[in-house]
Design brief:
16 strands; 8-stranded parallel beta sheet; homodimer; 3-stranded antiparallel beta sheet; 20% strand; alpha/beta; 371 residues
Chain lengths: 371, 371
Amino acid sequence: MRSISFNLLNENNGARLGKIITPRGVIDTPAFMPVGTAATVKAMYVDQVKDCGSQILLGNTYHLMIRPGTQRIIEAGGLHQFMNCNLPILTDSGGFQVMSLSKLTKITEDGVIFNSHLDGKKFFLTPEESIDVQLKLNSDIVLVFDDCPKYSFDKNKIIESMNLSLRWAKRSKDKFANQNSKWLFGIVQGGVFSDLRRECLNKLIDIGFDGYAIGGLAVGEKQREMFDVLDCVKDLMPKDKPHYLMGVGTPEDILGAVKRGIDMFDCVLPTRSGRTGLAFTWKGRVNIRNSKYSKDQTPLDDSIDCPASRLYSKNYLNHLVNSNEILGSMLLTWHNIAFYQDLMKKIRKSIEENRFDEFYKKSLAMLVNEN
Amino acid sequence: MRSISFNLLNENNGARLGKIITPRGVIDTPAFMPVGTAATVKAMYVDQVKDCGSQILLGNTYHLMIRPGTQRIIEAGGLHQFMNCNLPILTDSGGFQVMSLSKLTKITEDGVIFNSHLDGKKFFLTPEESIDVQLKLNSDIVLVFDDCPKYSFDKNKIIESMNLSLRWAKRSKDKFANQNSKWLFGIVQGGVFSDLRRECLNKLIDIGFDGYAIGGLAVGEKQREMFDVLDCVKDLMPKDKPHYLMGVGTPEDILGAVKRGIDMFDCVLPTRSGRTGLAFTWKGRVNIRNSKYSKDQTPLDDSIDCPASRLYSKNYLNHLVNSNEILGSMLLTWHNIAFYQDLMKKIRKSIEENRFDEFYKKSLAMLVNEN
């Protein structure tokens, strides 16, 4: 009997309500995972991330292995201790960052040779090495190492890459072996090609994973193309396992993906936007740099139970952000994470009460305003 | 009967224990005021500043009047509401920043014409205007507008500047008029010349102020010169009024100044150092960027009752600071303010228990280590 499990609690017009139980705590799904790239959710204390309702964080194997390096995290007693976090942590495998960040990447059957984007130092990452690093970080949910092709309509290229990812998925599983309290997720590739996506998913199911992630999206495709990918796989995704859409997305993306059976999300959008002055609210997006906010004494969104959302005027936030004050990044990031978790909480409640479709329509209408 | 008052509670070998009572709360002295230059103590939430034991903040008239501008703070209901702070706030008058930051300054009998260091916009600041702005900000402790000469041994220049400051001090007092719940402090100038310092102080006493600040220091002089200035005025400073040493300083400076009868301090050192990776601890200074800390799993100083001091390893902090993560600035600033307030608390306790000298010697020995 493993100490980590998933229960599907309700389904409502395609949307799924669930609960992941881990030794570090419960994760209610659909769940949003704030991104803690370099062992920190940028500009936030872990306690704030947690108090906003986050039940799991994401860490980046690529970033952590190049800085501070796996060894320093091992010496600290693992990633949770290193960053003083008692929430479960999911780590991605590094495949996406090797493609998007590093220089002079060389892909072989064995793995990937790449140069760090920080100092050019050479690294060699294989499926076995990626899993080994993730286990050393003490990640609770480990991802297989995959090849992430750039956005492309060249089907032969995508097939070749997908097949490599499938062989790497098998090697990842072999390396992961049996873990009582950890999970290993497979990653569905196949670009924008429905047949490839389905083929990839079926082959991953044959190997057998604890959850299934949809990868290779959030790389520049349109929302419609992303939803098409979800539509073509949703009926094949194992019902008793979590479905994770990697790197997505806007509040509207999340609503549309939940409708298509997705249980887990991660995205840098709320944190990165917080640092550049964009706030998500239930009345739409607020670009706080806009000079009109210098006369606005109202808070960002007093319907959200977070000090950053309720206690500071847009006048003040506009001043902080325009003055490049760190507190501006701190408050907007905090608010955005609180907003995202408020969205997830309301999504879960609406599924529980079998009124997700109504909530979905009402929310979309509220969220699309550009203030 | 005014609603703001000072009580001297004890004296011990020159050091003074006191209590300032204001409508916004009590300030135990000797007190350290964290600097909230642009309506924010950089990289900290006001609640953290308060939880560290801070009972008053400092705001900068110069910075606030050029950005966001007095009008926006008036519209927010004053500086406390604008920055969501219920602590008392002392504002300096702008004299120091006009000298140190602005470009193309022209000093006349009437006031100072200067160009903003941000965008070159022209401002005209007079004693009356400075007091008017401070009252509009709703500052609790207002400072007279003074001329701050650069560090100089040219006595005639210093005499001329001091006399101008004295005329401006009188005009500041006239403008301030009667305020029930606010204080106006005079500023002692006179450079490194003992006779001038004493003359200036006596003339300020003749005008009559609620407290006396020592200005024109922290401009490049040696600690010995600063202490000499304090020594030459300490017996002339009115016993029943607070004594404020502006812009000072290191923990060692503060200890030496308390010994010379100073009750109030402000300095950017703990906050600025926090953002550059320097931590103050009871075992001395810690330059967290030093690579040796990458192997150090101990916290900065677990004798200090602050999460930033106790819960994060030097290994982690070294990683954050070397990665330019905002959380690094947040944690080190938080720790440094907690350390400074711990120092002030222990100073007060030692005066209360008539053992300041012993504490002073013990502390100096502990603080001088460079780690």
